[in-house]
Amino acid sequence: MAVLSILLLSLLFSVSHQQPHLDSSEQESVYQILHSLNPTIPWRNLFPDDLCLSAPHGVVCDYPTQLNQTPHIVELSFGYVSDETPNPPCSPNATLHFHLFNSFPYLRKLFFYNCFNHTPLSLSPSFSLPSSLQELVFINNPSFISPLASLLQNLTSLRRLILIGNAFHGHLPSQIPAFLNLEELTLSRNNLSGQIPSTFGLLNQLKLLDLSGNNFQACLPDSLGNLSRLLKLDLSFNAFGCRIPESLRGLRSLEFLDLSFNRLGSFGVPLFLGELPTLKEVYLSGNSLSGAIPEIWENLGGVQRLGLSEMGLVGSIPVSMGVYLKNLSYLGLDNNNLEGPVPFGLLEYGGEINLENNNLSGRVRLSTRVGQKLKLKVGGNRGLCLDNIMDKKTDVPDAVVFSGASSLLWFDSLFLFSFGVLVFTGF
After folding, report:
1. Which pLDDT belongs to residue 6?
2. In which band, very low, low, confident or very high, does the pLDDT at 72 lie, cut at 50, 70 and 90?
3. Are 86 and 160 within one domain?
4. What is d(CA 273, CA 37) in angstroms, rounded to the nearest whole number?
5. What is the mean pLDDT of residues 409-420?
6. Quick one: pLDDT at residue 368?
7. Residues with Cβ < 8 Å from 49, sequence gap 6 or more?
8. 122 with 189, same domain?
């Protein structure tokens, strides 16, 4: 048995030494990148051997299927995220020589988190990343100041492009055929501008499109309705104008829609929303859609969060909302011109309901369901009278009522706790 064990160990040692080492140019480039991101750490001393056998978290090689194949770097992730993903940390004055990435012809993923916060960085017009990249992620790098077009050159294999909280600027590319493999496009909180090219409708693999928090303008193209696989569309906090295109009824897989805080207007809450039964979250707040709330809720029983605040809505709250929206955890109807009573059904299932600053009237009776937690904001409706679950009444016109609360919740440091109901005034 001892002889057999020795033979096996000898064989494993022999095989391991037959495995080719990481290409020397790739190894050297990794060292240089690590040094430029954080020169306070002795990377070469900590990881002196083949980086495919021993490397910092975030430096990943492929695993050749044949002994004679040379391993290559396929993933590079930098910037400490958490103890579960302890990527090499970046120093406060991190910088980077981008030409070093030309050494990684097999690179599939490149990730930077919170690395570039002080020293301004920009890309030269001739810069290009390896065409093998499938996933490119830059999150919270505010000193990365560069045109978006410079970053995207040559990236014909991209499946996920995630650029959040950086300083990329310029327009979206119109030459979409180069990006037909894209499944996720998240460009939120940058300085991008212009409009959405109509060619975006050709991205038929796209499942997530997030352009929120930029400076986009103009109308939404009708071609967005061609994205039949789209699960999430977030265009909030821009300056999009015109109408919400009717073609969005083609988004048959859509679960999340956020068009809030743009300049969309004058056509009311879109009726086609009632044709999208997969919707779970809808946010249209901060636009000038006006009009009455339509009767479209029968097929939208799966909606969990609905934001219709600050839209100039008029008329009454449809009773059908209380009948069909049984999964709501949030409803925002505040700061409109709504009038009339509050449908009791809205208050049956808990969650948060904001009805502040309307012209609502009548008596509001709260549910008595065991274990229910309801946060109800009704301040600014002078005609409302609130009845709580213990038959205690308040005629405080600016009341916020928490029903079934298990602990004290603070609001503007003014509160009254009695009989299991919290009534906050202090508006």
Report:
1. 42
2. very high
3. yes
4. 47
5. 28
6. 52
7. none
8. no
Residue pointed to by tokens 């707040």: 285
Residue-by-residue DSSP string for 159-204: SEEEEEEEEEEEPPPS-GGGGTT-SEEE--SSEEEE---GGGGG-T
Within a domain: 298: no
Residues 7-30: b if buried by 16+ CB within 10 A, e if exposed: eeeeeeeeeeeebeebbeebbebb
Residues 279 and 349 in one domain: no
Sorted by sequence, the CB contacts under 8 Å of residue 100 that are 6+ apart come out as 29, 32, 33
pTM for the full model?
A: 0.86
Question: Are 342 and 399 in a shared domain?
Answer: yes
Is residue 238 in some structural domain? yes
User: What residues make up the domain containing 83?
Assistant: 22-170
Question: Is residue 292 within 8 Å of residue 298, measured between CB atoms?
Answer: no
Distance between CA atoms of residues 249 and 225, nearest Å = 7
Q: Quick check: helix, strand or coil at residue 379?
A: coil
Two structure tokens written together for 69: 């194949």
Q: Could you read off the pLDDT of 18-32 as tens digits, one per residue?
A: 568 899 999 999 999
Task: For residue 356, give the nearest of 310, 300, 295, 410 by alpha carbon.
Answer: 310
Taking the C-alpha atoms of residue 332 and residue 324, their distance in angstroms, rounded to an integer, is 16
pLDDT at position 392, please? Answer: 44
Q: Are residues 85 and 195 in the same domain?
A: no
Considering its fold, how many domains does the chain have in total?
A: 3
* Residue 60 DSSP symbol: E
Q: How far is CA 354 from the centre of its chain?
A: 23
